[in-house]
Amino acid sequence: MLTLDEIESGLYVTHKNTGLRYSVVEAEDDEVLLSPEQEGLQDLTVPLDLFRSEFVATDRFRAAGGRRGGRGRRRTPQAGTGPVPVPTGPKSKGKIKKMVRDRGFGFIRGDDGKEVFFHRSGLNAGEYDALSEGDYVEYIVQEGPRGARAEHVRQALPDPA
């Protein structure tokens, strides 16, 4: 778990469950402002306690003149050298059973009858917004610390019978 002294502007962190990387823009007494490394995602404000339990430090970069708790909204350089890799694992198909849009996640009932969680962070932003309950999708199942999770969710056509 990150200590309070480690949380400062320019710190690169990775979310434990999604693997998404962010840089700390600003750290205050009760929340942390994060900027995503991946294009198309929005900045994130996370309560400090949640941040400390859900993120791990991965690298440090200190912008010129960087300061802890500053009000400037500097973007740190992108650490990635290429596109985000596509998850590997078994491909599955199923229908979206439930969407919880205000919280950015949903559930898919696979053709095999198993239900799997998915989060908007595992999709491109426009693709999540285009999905609806009842849509037929294909996805890759990834095993995470909290169980199975659907990644790389894409609309698909049902297999012909």
Give the topology.
Layout: E1 11-15, E2 21-27, E3 31-36, E4 44-47, H1 48-54, E5 55-60, E6 91-100, E7 105-110, E8 115-119, H2 125-130, E9 136-144, E10 147-155
Parallel strand pairs: 8-10
Antiparallel strand pairs: 1-2, 1-5, 2-3, 3-4, 6-7, 6-9, 7-8, 9-10
Write up what this structure looks like.
With 161 residues, the chain is mostly beta strands. It folds into 2 domains: 4-60, SH3 type barrels (Roll), CATH 2.30.30; 91-155, Nucleic acid-binding proteins (OB fold (Dihydrolipoamide Acetyltransferase, E2P), Beta Barrel), CATH 2.40.50. 8% of the residues lie in helices and 42% in strands. It contains 2 helices and 10 strands. It has helices at residues 48-54, 125-130, and strands at residues 11-15, 21-27, 31-36, 44-47, 55-60, 91-100, 105-110, 115-119, 136-144, 147-155. Strands 4-3-2-1-5 form a 5-stranded antiparallel sheet, covered by helices on one side. Strands 6-7-8-10-9 form a 5-stranded mixed β-barrel. Strand 2 and strand 3 form a beta hairpin. Residues 60-84 have low confidence and may be disordered.
